[in-house]
Design a protein that fits this description.
By secondary structure, the chain is mainly β. It has three helices and 15 strands. It has one domain.
Length: 267
Amino acid sequence: MSTTKLSSLTLLLCIFIQGSTFAATAICEDRSGGLRAQLIELYTSEGCSSCPPADRWLSTLVPKVVKAEEVVPLAFHVDYWDRLGWRDRFADPSYAARQYASAKVSGSGFVFTPQVVLAGRNFAAWSSIGSVQKVVRDASAVAPDASFVLRQHLVTSGRIEFEVQAQLRQGVSLNNVRVHAALFQNGLVTDVAKGENSGNQLHHDYVVRKLLTSKAIDHSGKIRFQERFTLPDDAQMRMMGMAVFAQDAETGVVLQAMSAPLCTSVR
């Protein structure tokens, strides 16, 4: 899997600093674009026999169906299928909780896999190329309600510090908006030994490995969100990226989204 799958809207800065403690550190800066990029969430599981086709769909979404600047794809692996005999190593209870919260916002009484959520709403027509293209491009024509500056700092080979500066468009309700930062990875492969997918080799892209959420936006519509990601033990940095999105927790509306490759000393 090529790192070209990791889309960076604008790379402004990449500086390499030689230090006495670490061989190299890097500081990289990216900004969100003028289009309203659409967040596409796939809720999936390695224990679900109907999920592999959706996983493959997400992998080929860019550039086969839509352009990189139009969407920010993420795969959230849920844990509620683990009881069937195969424990999904990418699953996290918090991702299932996010799916349940999304269902509550949209008025749905249940969750399922595979489920595609586009811009905070269930999107049942995900397998139709024409439907995806129309919905994404119609939504992208609406001006974004937020803008981001993302700065990443490679502290060590196992830790990334980042800062997101977000500005909401004037007039946007601030009460329930939060900024989210996701660490994701491409090119992951699992040989499944048990459960519904027993004997199959599964391939995954855009897999969320960590998800962090900011505090509330201040009265001016700005926030400075500073945090760090500790990379998983099986991390391959050249196959990883960060996604940032602002979302209203009450309505599910995604104000803007962006993604960037993980900052490394070879970027």
